[in-house]
Each structure stands twice: as C-alpha cells, then as structure tokens.
Amino acid sequence: MEQATEAPLKKTPLNARHRASGAKMVPFGGWDMPVEYAGGLVQEHMAVRTRAGLFDVSHMGEIEIAGKDALAAVQRISSNDASKLQVGQAQYSGLLSPQGTFIDDLLVYRLAPAHFLLVVNAGNIAKDYAWIADAIKPVGDAVAVDASSRYALLAVQGPEAASVLQPLTGIELAGIKYYWFAHGEVANVRATVSRTGYTGEDGFEIFVPPQSADRVWQAILEAGRSADVVPCGLGARDTLRLEAAMRLHGNDIDETTTALEADLSWIVGWKKDDFIGAAPLREQKATGVRRKIIGFEMLDRGIARHGYDAYVGGEKAGVVTSGTQTPYLKKAIGMAYLPVERTAVGTEFDVDIRGRRTRARVVPMPFYKRQK
Amino acid sequence: MAYPAGLKYTKDHEWIELSGDKGKVGITDYAQQQLGDVVYVELPEVGAKLKQGQSFGTIESVKAVSELYAPVTGEVVEVNGALKDKPEAVNADPHASWMIVVKLTNPGEAGALLDATQYQELVK
Question: Do B63 and A354 touch (CB under 8 A)?
Fold first, then answer.
C-alpha cells in the first residue's frame, strides 16, 4: 500500500468524479486511479458477473497509425494478422520485441482501410510509441501518432450492458458482433462503441472526447440505476480478468516471456510475411517451448501472488505471475509458468507463500466462462 | 464507525483490549477499510512469544497481504480459531473480531499506546 510520491500522477477526465464518489484512489502505471468504490471490490466483481459495472479505463493509451502503407506498418509491429481485419473490426495482438517477447499487448482497431487505432497499456504508452515510431520508419508512407490525450475510454461490462446502454445511443448494439465496433453518439456525445472488454462478460468499450467523459459516465449510471449498475475500480477489473484468464502485461507477459510460452499462439499471424519477433517464434514453434503458462487453483489455504516461486519435488521450477481469491468462483486461483512437462491438467506443485509450501493443482483456463 | 473508548490503539492500526495482565488484539476499522475484503488470517500458535512492534501474523485481502504487528510484548495465550473459517468477520465487526489474547510481559508498554481520541485524530 505504499504510495509513489516522486512524479505527479496523471489524472483521467473522471478523476474528480471518482473522488467525489468516495473511491479509494491508488497510483497505477503513473495514473491516479480508483481501485474500488465504497461498496468494495467483491460487490463490484459480482455486479459485473450478474448485472453490469462501469469502468473508467481512460488511462489506457491510444496510438493511431495512418498513411498509404498503414497496413504494412501495423503488420510489421503487431504479431496478429491485421490483413484479416475489416473496417469496423478489432483484434487482440502483441507488440513483440525481436526476441518474440512482449513489449506490450494491445487491441488493433481498423478505423479505415489505411487507418488503425492501437489501444495499449497505460504504463507503456511512451515506451510503445517510441518503439512503434522507430520500427515503422522503413515501411514507407505511414505515420504513428500518440493520440492518448484525445480519448477518454469507458467500459460497460456485464450481462445487462447492452440493455443499459441501448437507450442512450442510436447505434443498434445487437448489430455489433464480438470484437467489432461502430461510430455514433452515446448520451448525445460523439462516440465509438466497441464490443470488447477485459472481464470475461459481454460488454462495450466506449471512446469519447475527454471533455464529455463525465456526461457519458453520469448518463450510463443514471440509465443503469434500475439494473443496479455500479462503478467499478481497478481491483475488480483485475479479479474479473483473472477469472477469465486474460493476461496482464507486467504480470503474466513481459519482455522475458514469448507469445508461445504465454500460450498465445492464436495472436501470432503465422501465415503473414515477416514481422518483428517472427523468427524466434517460428524457431520456438519448431523446437517446442521449455516452459509454459498454466492456470492453477490452490488446494491448501492461501493466495499465491505475483512473483511467488513454484516448486516441483522440492526444486524451484517456476514462478506465479498472477493470483487472487476470486469473488465469483470463491477459490484461490492464479497463473504460473512451469516446465512444459509439468503443465498437464491435474499436475500438482507447491507455491512458496511467505515461507510456507502450499499445494496447488494445474486446472484448465479460463477459470470462468460465461454462458452464451 | 466510532473507535471504542475502552480500547488502546497502535499507529500500525491494531487495537488491544486490556483486562488485568492480558489483552485481546485485533485490527481497527480503518485497517479493515484499507485492506478491503479479508479472505485469510494467519495467526501464531498458543505459546508464541511476541515482541512489541514485531509481526505476529498476516492478514490477506483480495487485493493485498499485510503484516499484523504486536501492540505489546508478551505470550500468546489464546487464538481466535473462528477467524480461519470466517475471516470476513474482520470486515463486518473489526473491533469485536479479536485475533489473539496476549499475556503482557511488561504492562507498562500499554500506557504509551494511543487512546481512542488520539487514534481518531491519526486516521482522520
């Protein structure tokens, strides 16, 4: 619970609203963000699983790539195959180092045939932008712009998300498929609405101009009053994404882990031309990975958290990358890297929880999958 | 929530309820609010020797894990085993959810702890 006090924290356009609503604020990736509101993390988590919750994710970064050769530029820096995207469609992808490891993970939106929007993690914006601007120089007619300050981003997540949002917009939400988006207005504010999220539920992410973020935020809470929609903080965002087994950059994936070790082969465009990080990934695919990410649940009491060591037969064999007590499943779960021969479902291992060897078992991911 | 006048408090957000040469120890309402939903309380065994200001256990919420610090020097004579199965009681009623009973080695130490008014001022 230590507060970083050196650099001034950045604030989203909703900062004053969060503070006035009694949110508990914490520093996260250089931003002053709500970790939970008065009702607490568990209540927020359950609201998203059973009704809907509203998140301010304006700290996320937006980098646009445009120009005649924009597709070639995106293909070079993004691991997934952006040529498969139609205008109005998005995909999950990796921003990989030449070693095939994660500089960041991101969503790639195709706004127009030669205009892409990349949504990146808050703490990585400057690093990603510098990397991308440099890496696309050889490509030709394509330019990258850090457009983060032009967007506020709200997320409405949960089974009631569509019914809460629909009265506020002329966009026909039922017509937006998973990982597609549309432009229009929300609460009379120009908006881009995408059927995406980081919770494992149905839901939408809404890009709006920063100066209008508060109006949209208030309108969604007002529209969601009868469905008991609650504002949610980063705490619930983390437990929700972990139940859904979504990777968190800086925890589960980073510049030491490859896309294959992270079991994200599906975001690698194996058939496309050369891209940064392709060669080591192709080699690793041919020879096989030595370690791999797994999901686990605790058999003994305790929560295995990020950075705790994993042991097999008394030997240190891996490391936990995420772990929590999940409010919905009511179990202690997590993700860890283990030697590939110890990754079969049902395999047991130990986690060193502050000096105590604690039993865990490999289970399938995701831990939680919503009913369609 | 009001801080009961009958308890003494530490700057580390524990309380102690003294009775003769013994004291019941728990964490304050402020501490449980900071932690959020408590899921696990790890306590010492009866007979453990505690030193004032040193860790006697850990408390874990969904968000984080924190140390529990002994408000006084002494020996653990009772442990609240019920918290093992109902750790959320710490959130619901922090000033009644005692964790351990300590037999004080040096009762003079307790005099220097904060009273309710001073503690209220600390967490204001």
Answer: no
Query: Is A236 contained in some domain?
Result: yes
A44 and chain B in contact, CB less than 8 A: no
Same domain, A54 and A155: yes
Helix (H, G, I), strand (E, B) or coil at A89: strand
CA distance A120 to A130: 13
Task: Give the range of the structural domain holding residue A173, as residue numbers without chain letter.
Answer: 15-58+151-243
In this complex, the residue of A301, A302, A327 whose CB is nearest that of residue B62 is A327
pLDDT band at A188 (very low <50, low <70, confident <90, very high): very high
- The CA distance from A157 to the nearest CA of chain B, in Å, is 21
- At A222, which CATH number? 3.30.1360.120
Closest Cα in chain A, distance from residue B119 (Å): 20
Q: Kindly list the residues from chain B whose CB atom is less than 8 angstroms away from the CB atom of residue A354.
A: 58, 65
Q: Supply the CATH number for residue B95's domain.
A: 2.40.50.100
State the DSSP code for A259: T
DSSP letter assigned to residue A146: E
pLDDT for position B67? 94
Interface-testing mutation among A43, A44, A325, with chain B (most B C-beta atoms within 10 A): A325
Interchain proximity B63–A235, CB inside 8 Å: yes
The phi, psi pair for A139, rounded to 5°, reads -75, -30
Looking at the fold, whether A202 and A306 belong to one and the same domain comes out as no
The total domain count for chain A is: 3
pLDDT, one tens digit per residue, over B13-45 is: 999 999 999 999 999 999 999 998 899 999 999
Whether residue A52 is found in the same domain as residue A98: no
Contacts of A57 (CB under 8 A, 6+ apart): A153, A154, A155, A198, A205, A237
Q: Mean pLDDT over residues B89-106, rounded?
A: 96
Specify whether A168 is located in the same domain as A23. yes
